[in-house]
Specification:
By secondary structure, the chain is an all-alpha fold. It has two helices and no strands. It starts with a helix and ends in a 5-residue tail after the last helix.
């Protein structure tokens, strides 16, 4: 195997690795973006659930019914 052949093979491997790295970087960026969106959605849903919880300080509706119910 000549030195030129070895250099060509190394250049091809390097090119493949650079392409692979760029693909992985793009994928990680996209996953981070989706994770950020999902975190915001979860925070929004938690807030909505807190707002929808009944207030335990006041009387229940059952307690407010007349006795003949």
């Amino acid at each position: 195997m000549t030195i030129e052949t070895r250099i060509d093979q190394l250049e091809m491997k390097l090119s493949f690795q650079e392409d692979n790295l760029e693909t992985l970087n793009t994928e990680v960026f996209e996953q981070q973006r989706k994770l950020h969106i999902l975190s915001e959605q979860v925070s929004y849903l938690v807030q909505k659930l807190k707002e929808a919880e009944p207030d335990n300080n006041g009387p229940d509706e059952v307690d407010m019914r007349p006795p003949h119910y």
